[in-house]
Amino acid sequence: MSHKPGRPFLHIPGPTNVPLPILAATARPTIDHRSAEFGRLGREVLAGIRTIFKTRNPVLIYAASGTAGWEAALLNTLSPGDRVLMYETGQFATLWARMARKLGLEPEFLKGDWRSAVDVAAIEARLAEDRAHAVKAVCIVHNETATGTLSDVAGVRAALDRTGHPALLMVDTISSLASTDYRHDEWGVDVTVGGSQKGLMLPPGLAFNAVSDKALAAAKQARLARAYFDWEDMLAINETGYFPTTPAVNLLFGLKVAIETLHAEGLDAVFARHARAAAATRRAVRHWGLELQCRDEAQASPTVTAVRMPDGVSADAFRAEVLERFNLTLGGGLGPLADRVFRIGHIGDFNDLTIAAVLSGVEMGLRLAGVPHRAGGADAAQRVLAGETEMLRAAE
Ligand code: PLP
């Protein structure tokens, strides 16, 4: 048996660290999913999860990974050959577009540079051109986990409204939900897709669809074939707190505690904690003299920071060194960014001291791996975490 002393530091942008009370809840003995006790749990989590998406409408919960949430969103609302407008923020937007094509839809994929958020003006221009309303849905990734950019969902809603375009708005919040501000109802989103393993601090295994009345109406006309993911069957039985098939009972035990945990801290405090961690991380990166994958800091993600390695330096060799030496797991580059970037996840269950430790681990790793950098980034980040941002700016 091999043993690594000390606590493992899991700092990929999901799955995230599961706090002990949530883990303990998932370890309870499983119960009968048709029992009265389960009905109470089902009603509680189905109501509670709405407060996280900020919606008064139903949220569907599937036993599946986040990708299934994309699939359910498309299948329930669209018909074969429908045009969907998507924007290439990075790997996850690319995968969603690829899925749309596989399902028999016609994705129109607006070109992005994998370093920027959704270009709202480009979406608006395309919608304005589409006088025949051939586009049936606009699908965007709120937080592009591959590149560390956050997009303006309310801005895209406003673009739809300004052009008077009736397309549905679908948003992937898999790596932003419960970690940065998100308002399904207020932002007029028709389908919001979520997953359990990031801001919700649960193990992987649940996918979510929050839906609008307009999305529910579209589901009545939609002709893509669907079975397990059919909203109608699920919504009918969810009214009583039950599910049409065997739900992930133990993850739902955990979900109840996760929702309580988030509200105990307060959603705004949760969002502020993530924003502070992200600011501290970016402060360290700038000090080291490394480059962010996100080109404009105003678009930087609150949950993940992707850092570009200097030319000729392997990001994966650096990550391997950090894992071996400090038991700190960082995220790798995805798709064309493989071995070119490393990603620091600051999402879910952490505090300021966790982030200070992670950034120390990264800095020690840079030194050990011989990556050219300016020492002192972790120290500069500590000052951001300690609330000295203004003083620090003044000193620069
Ligand atoms: N969308 C985003 C933004 C993600 O970060 C991920 C996973 O990291 C996915 C979709 C896919 O989710 P899953 O791997 O749970 O299927």
Quick description:
With 396 residues, the protein is α/β, with parallel strands linked by helices. Helix content is 43%, strand content 16%. Helix 1 (20-26) packs antiparallel against helix 9 (249-265).
Output the keywords.
globular; Aspartate Aminotransferase, domain 1; 14 strands; 2 domains; Aspartate Aminotransferase, domain 2; seven-stranded mixed sheet; binds pyridoxal-5'-phosphate; single chain
Q: How would you characterize the overall build of this protein?
A:
It is a single chain. The chain is an alpha/beta fold and 396 residues long. The protein folds into 2 domains: 9-15 and 266-395, Aspartate Aminotransferase, domain 1 (Alpha-Beta Complex), CATH 3.90.1150; 20-263, Aspartate Aminotransferase, domain 2 (3-Layer(aba) Sandwich), CATH 3.40.640.10. The chain is 43% helix and 16% strand. The chain is built from 14 helices and 14 strands. The protein has helices at 20-26, 36-53, 66-77, 91-102, 120-129, 153-162, 213-221, 231-238, 249-265, 267-288, 315-326, 352-368, 377-385, 389-395; strands at 9-11, 59-63, 83-87, 106-110, 135-141, 143-144, 149-150, 168-172, 191-195, 206-211, 291-292, 304-308, 328-332, 341-345. A 7-stranded mixed sheet has the order 2-10-9-8-5-3-4, with helices on both faces. The chain has a 5-stranded mixed sheet with strand order 1-13-14-12-11. The longest helix has 22 residues, at 267-288. It is globular, with a radius of gyration of 21 Å. The model has no long low-confidence stretch (mean pLDDT 97). Bound molecules: pyridoxal-5'-phosphate. Pyridoxal-5'-phosphate (PLP) is lined by residues 14, 65-67, 92, 141, 145, 172, 174-175, 195, 204. Pfam families: Aminotran_5. Its cofactor is pyridoxal 5'-phosphate. Belongs to the class-V pyridoxal-phosphate-dependent aminotransferase family.
